[in-house]
Task: inverse folding
């Protein structure tokens, strides 16, 4: 991935690292064991720079509402789950998107009462910033949580991010969820993730690492308010605590991203800033005193402006620590220049653009056609020579879908090449975690983390048709679909 033209036919793996990249006949003279990948294409392992592994692992066993076409269909699946539920069980639906339903308003607690008046019921919106609870679930949510509308059942922001705490998910359940999520990651060709965690998630990861159960490289970013007493830590080759996560605003889907102008479909609403500039300034100083990298969620243009003001005022180690802005969906030209000058990394989600910036889809409805043109401006970012890394935010966890999304951006002027999109899912991901000496490209001495694909993505007509045939982490085959 250093140069587009660099392609080879063989490489040697020894003691978990890559050695002697060369032509096949040279490699064969040095190897004890041959793995024949004739007809396939090998790349450095994908690095997903924005994940929620515990949540994804738990959601596998919840009610998937992501493909429902109507609220009635969602209710049908929730009721089927309720029929199987035992006393004390929660009914949790995940991934609903009301913008594809005929009913475009959010459901209410009264409507969820039709699922159950005994079991707590919560459904989470696909963006992860909004959920709806029935009366029984609201009773379990204490008065200390903000953004809880007890009249409608609507939940926003922090209370949604902390549902696992409210539901009282145990450490063993978290560990099981992590292992389930790792299997999914391997099947997608992912060898490393940058994962957003709370304190209990981090402790679960530490136990799994001590047990030798991790075969995915995990770079953790813990919520700022749960980081007391912690410092950057490299536990092993598979686990490290890299940084702190801050939230400047919400999401466009929940109409809680902080905008300079009103939402097109909700006059009078400009979203919400979750942190003001003074708070961010103090958090930046605190993080840099502890040598923590910052991962700052900012989607709306007002949030972006506030975050940049805070970095310009407070940061003294931005280049050294490689602070990141997550999502960065609404980027105007002036913001891009400031990001470049501060030397920030942008961690973006191309699947957001492909799914929600199509004509007449959610971003156009929420923002209008003019603002839509500068949503997720990948070409503008690349042209400004800003390091841009790609992640999935679990929507869905598929680098090939993400790369397809970037090269088929709904705004023609913001499309980038397949090669540059691949770099954002490999080399740039390593750079974003300050791991470029170990990961992200095929170089002698780097970890033998790679993915085997059914065809060359640089030549493919449609990347969504490419299959992951094998995933290797540290020289160990962790996923193998060649027999299929």
Result:
């Amino acid at each position: 991935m250093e140069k587009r033209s660099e392609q080879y036919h063989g490489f040697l793996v020894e003691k978990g690292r890559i050695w002697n990249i060369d032509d096949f006949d040279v490699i064969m003279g040095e190897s004890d064991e041959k793995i024949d990948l004739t007809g396939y294409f090998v790349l450095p392992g994908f690095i997903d720079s924005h994940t929620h592994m515990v949540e994804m692992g738990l959601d596998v066993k919840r009610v998937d509402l992501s493909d429902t076409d109507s609220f009635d269909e969602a209710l049908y699946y929730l009721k089927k789950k309720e029929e199987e539920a035992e006393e004390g069980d929660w009914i949790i639906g995940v991934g609903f998107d009301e913008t594809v339903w005929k009913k475009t308003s959010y459901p209410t607690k009264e409507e969820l009462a039709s699922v159950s008046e005994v079991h707590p019921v919560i459904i989470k919106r696909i963006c992860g910033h909004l959920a709806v609870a029935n009366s029984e679930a609201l009773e379990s949510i204490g008065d200390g949580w903000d953004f809880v509308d007890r009249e409608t059942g609507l939940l926003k922001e922090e209370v949604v991010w902390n549902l696992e705490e409210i539901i009282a998910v145990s450490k063993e359940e978290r560990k099981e969820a992590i292992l389930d999520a790792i299997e999914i990651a391997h099947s997608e060709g992912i060898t490393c993730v940058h994962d957003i965690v709370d304190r209990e998630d981090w402790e679960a990861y530490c136990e799994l690492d001590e047990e030798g159960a991790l075969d995915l490289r995990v770079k953790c970013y813990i919520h700022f308010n749960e980081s007391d007493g912690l410092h950057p830590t490299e536990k092993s080759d598979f686990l490290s605590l890299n940084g702190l996560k801050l939230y400047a605003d919400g999401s466009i889907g929940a109409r809680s991203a902080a905008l300079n102008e009103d939402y097109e479909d909700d006059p009078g609403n400009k979203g919400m800033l979750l942190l003001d500039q003074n708070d961010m300034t103090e958090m930046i100083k605190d993080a840099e005193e502890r040598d923590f990298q910052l991962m700052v969620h900012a989607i709306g243009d007002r949030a972006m402006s506030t975050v940049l003001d805070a970095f310009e005022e407070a940061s003294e180690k931005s280049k050294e620590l490689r602070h990141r802005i997550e999502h960065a969906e609404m980027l105007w030209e002036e913001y891009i220049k400031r990001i470049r000058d501060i030397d920030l990394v942008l961690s973006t989600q191309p699947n957001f653009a492909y799914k929600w910036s199509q004509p007449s889809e959610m971003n156009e409805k929420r923002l209008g056609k003019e603002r839509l043109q500068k949503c997720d401006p990948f070409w503008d970012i690349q042209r400004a020579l800003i390091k841009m890394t790609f992640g999935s935010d679990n929507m869905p966890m598929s680098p090939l879908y993400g790369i397809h999304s970037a090269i088929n951006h709904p705004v023609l002027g913001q499309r980038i090449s397949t090669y540059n999109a691949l770099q954002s899912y490999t080399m740039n991901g390593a750079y974003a975690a300050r791991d470029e000496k170990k990961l992200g490209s095929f170089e002698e001495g780097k970890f033998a983390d790679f993915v085997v694909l059914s065809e060359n993505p640089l030549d493919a007509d449609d990347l969504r048709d490419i299959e992951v045939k094998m995933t290797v982490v540290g020289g160990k085959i962790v996923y193998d679909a060649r027999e299929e």
Notes: The chain has 19 helices and 20 strands. The CA atoms of residues 449 and 473 lie 4 Å apart. The longest strand covers residues 239-247. The chain has a mean pLDDT of 94.
